[in-house]
Design a protein that fits this description.
Residues 1-11 have a biased composition (Basic and acidic residues). The structure is a single chain. The chain is α+β, with helices and mostly antiparallel strands. It has a domain at 54-120. The chain contains three helices and four strands, in the order αααββββ. It has helices at 43-46, 65-68, 75-87, and strands at 92-98, 101-106, 113-118, 129-131. It has a four-stranded antiparallel sheet with strand order 3-1-2-4. It is globular, with a radius of gyration of 17 Å. The chain starts with 42 loop residues before the first helix and ends with a strand. 23% of the residues are buried.
């Protein structure tokens, strides 16, 4: 006998990090669905398309987070982010805090931001993903 009212627990969506408007832009992120291996690295990292080598070091703070790559959300570091974002917004990625996990999202975001990463060149397309 089958019961049509039984819900599959694997069909619950995993929340995605919000954008500056407070809404998620990821329609089908790589982390959606609870049936996937949570320890699996995002495909961009597995294929070597996304690494810290793509990002410029923070010249204002030699002890910056993320191996010296993160720019703060205030002061002269943020002014550097703003200046580069005006020239080429596709060089900016945002580090986000979402439910205690750190996410990286392409572009400049304001909600739950921890800091910014600046690409040496225009960043390749990638889906928002969670570290650890």
């Amino acid at each position: 006998m089958s019961n049509k009212n039984t819900k599959d627990s694997k069909s619950k969506p995993v929340p995605t990090p919000p954008t500056q408007s407070g809404r998620s832009t990821a329609k089908n992120p790589p982390h959606a669905g609870r049936g996937q291996n949570k320890n699996r690295l995002p495909s961009q990292i597995r294929r070597g398309l996304l690494s810290m080598k793509l990002f410029r070091k923070n010249h204002l703070d030699k002890n910056a987070a993320f191996d010296g790559h993160m720019f703060e959300t205030f002061g002269p570091e943020y002014k550097t982010v703003e200046r580069i974002a005006k020239k080429d917004p596709k060089r900016i990625a945002t580090l986000l805090d979402c439910d205690g996990a750190i996410w990286i999202a392409r572009g400049r975001h304001w909600v739950n931001r921890l800091g910014y990463l600046i690409g040496k060149q225009k960043l390749p397309p990638f889906d928002d993903f969670k570290f650890g």
